[in-house]
Amino acid sequence: MRKIISRSILVSIIQSLLVSVILLSIFLVNFPLQSWLEIWYRPVLGMPFVVFIVIISLLFGIVSGLMNGFFWKNQIEVVEKALIKLEQATPDTTITYEGSLTEISNVMEKIKQLQLAFQDQTKRSQKLISERVESQEERIEEVITQERNRLARELHDSVSQELFAASMLVSAMNELPVAQDSQMKKPIQQVETMIQQAQLEMRALLLHLRPIALKDNSLKQGMDQLLQELDEKVPLEIIWDVKDVDLSKGVEDHLFRILQESVSNTLRHAKAEVLDILLIERDGFVILRVMDDGIGFDLEKKSSSYGLANMEERAAEIGAKLRLVSVPNKGTRIEVRVPIMDVEGDEKND
Q1: Could you tell me the fold of the domain covering 217-350?
Q2: Which of 58, 55, 47, 52 has its CA nearest to residue 10?
Q3: Domain spans of the chain?
Q4: Whole-angstrom Cα distance, residue 75 to residue 72?
Q5: Which of the four, 24, 87, 159, 255, has the lowest number of CB atoms within 10 Å?
Q6: Closest by alpha carbon to 82, among 118, 113, 111?
Q7: CA distance 202 to 273
């Protein structure tokens, strides 16, 4: 910026001296002097006339150069600040020019156009990236779902069938006379118990690998289908009372996944004989309750469990409260209370 002021002063001094020389020459041509020495000897304010002209020219050039230099310095600073804003621009950044100089105003208008172009390009890029990520996630999810279904089919067709055959074989062995011997009876019963537990673990694993989706069904229909299927396959008394409730599809899906997770945990860990499930609507809430009469567990030791954390996250996402009560050797109860919100009405109002 100092170079601008220095250059402006130098140019103004040169211009002022040239104008003074031209005007002095015109004056001398039109009003000739008897001798050129009069220019030197004739005093003005106590100094030779020529020196006076030169000093006045220098002073005028310096003053006009300073004024002109500072003016353009300020204008260039305005443009420079606008370019810095453009470089560091956010969606809320606005570039303005309050001056009246047409040339600078045109430059600022171009900068504004560049800013709008950059913002538009940024939005387009972000939109493309988001669409690309969503597309990739959908493809990844599709591949994962296909692989999970494949594994579930293979486990069901191979391991589950082998476990079933082993269970039938052990049951047949229990009917043999040799199995009545006290030394043989206990190991065979232990093997039978292990096979039954392995079958429960396998069914819980299949429930995770290939969960039943609601699709176009209501939450009640999906729960009835899931629990009916489990009731036919697991050696566990399942009692359920499921009512029709009015919830959005997203909330229904989260509640259904919470139910799947809790039932899976019961099959794998609870060693329960009875599983009681309730879904009702009461006092502006939808209540999902899952209870078993299993061995229970210590809540402090299980606080970091992945399954429990997953249920808590799903409940929090739909604004629900999840309450977990478990008493060793008494059983476990999970209760989820979902506030009923008129989401569709709010969307219409918006």
Answers
A1: Heat Shock Protein 90 (3.30.565)
A2: 58
A3: 2-88, 123-206, 217-350
A4: 5
A5: 87
A6: 111
A7: 18
